[in-house]
Amino acid sequence: MLRVTRQVIAALHRDERIATWEGLQEALREQMTQYSDLHPGVERYVAHAVEQYLDTHDELAAQYEEVRFFAFDPVVGSQGREVAVWAPLYSSVDGVREVRRLRVNKARSSAEEHDRWATVAAFVAAGVKMRVPPVKIRIVEAGLFDGSTEVVFEGTPDEVRTRYETYGRPVIKNLLEATDYRPGQSCQNCKLAGCCPSLEDLSGCLGQRRPGTHTRSVSAADLELYLKCPARWYLETVCRLPAAGMSSEASDRGRIIHRWLAQAHARGTRCTEQDVALLGQVGVFTGTLTAEEYAKTREFLAAHVRSCPLVDGVEVVAVEPSTYGYDGTADVVIASQPDLVYREAGGRIFIRETKTTTQMPADESDAFDRFFPVPWLMNIASTAKDAFGETEILPVVELEVITPGGARVFTWDLERDQDMVRMARAEVRQRAGSWIRDATWSSSPGPQCTWCPVRRWCPDAADAHGDADGQPQVYDESCAGLQAGLSD
Ligand code: SF4
Ligand code: SF4
Ligand SMILES: [Zn+2]
Q1: Which residues of the chain have pLDDT under 50?
Q2: What are 72's strand-pairing partners?
Q3: How many angstroms separate the alpha carbon of residue 473 from the centre of ligand 2?
Q4: pLDDT per residue over 383-402, tens digit each?
């Protein structure tokens, strides 16, 4: 997506027609015809981003000075020892050089992490060979969504070099010397996934006979979202297009409850009635919840206290562990994040997922059907019994469902419930089957479009209006997924 955006920007910088609005539209339309294989939602975003960027370009010129586009991705150094900055470089006739960091969403103001980027970018900009020597270097953030800009650095070449030696070179040195493995989002596109020692071996977990089109990564939240609408999954999760905040009271409440549970269980002891006492009473545990958040969720937290698993003899193995594995048959990195993993006194591992809803499932079978993390976790733990902690026998998967009226724990013993394990495998195989072969991500317009965070980019958004009739009657908390981070 950004590659196309950059190519179109570079082409339009050389096109004189962009001086007028009509000319710009014509030139943009012409450019976009070259990229007919783009997803329609991405195509919309790219056209929007290019227009915003060209406006930004004019505004920056009016605010500072006229600069001309020099090149994308300038590099300094010689082969094998090069430092590059992945951004466009501009220069003025009197030696001002400007690098613009393109953000998919909005420009961010200076912060330590961005400063490192700016430090290295400024070093590259100052070192690039150009006809006019540099007198000033400026690093600007440019938001492609809203045309926002932030100058994050401005200085002379001497200042740039000093800053690079202090804050840039040592970081680069550490990067080159790093030998540890840090599983995370970068595993998604990692060519080493198949032989990475930090990933659990989950071969066969997705039940596929052959790999998909390329290495992918997947979590329960991905497959849940994909089932609702493949286009939404693609635009929101893969492209990370700017999304409208569509949070509902139920999902906000779920997030608050999960935050409290994680903080309470990190103490390693059982939650008590005293923990959930009225605000202001002795011993009440609010964690990082505000008074308002605590008051809003207190009855749910009180319901949990009665089903808290951390009784005497139980050991917390991990709270919300991010676990990554690799299914070599499907060529997919598999991510999961249960709410709690604990070991009971006998040594058995329990994997617990907690969900809030307005209507309690009738029984285990109803819970299994409604909450996809259940078959998902059963499948992972039965593929690799040690995936969540070393254990002699297969773990137990639990689903704790909390409603305003009370909590209930549903249990699947993977050692005994072989029929359920087979059902879990079938459920995951079926969901993953269509996802792994999909490369077009078509849209599924329907009532869900009303709450779709990326509907602004979707040409197929159904014209549904969020009225009571169109809304589901039961509010099951959907998968939160792993922390996806902000779009940048
Ligand atoms: S698969 Fe391994 S090497 Fe690749 S990004 Fe993940 S942790 Fe790092
Ligand atoms: S607006 Fe509707 S069809 Fe479009 S991506 Fe969102 S849910 Fe899918
Ligand atoms: Zn508890």
Answers
A1: 466-472, 483-488
A2: 88
A3: 20
A4: 999 999 999 999 999 999 99
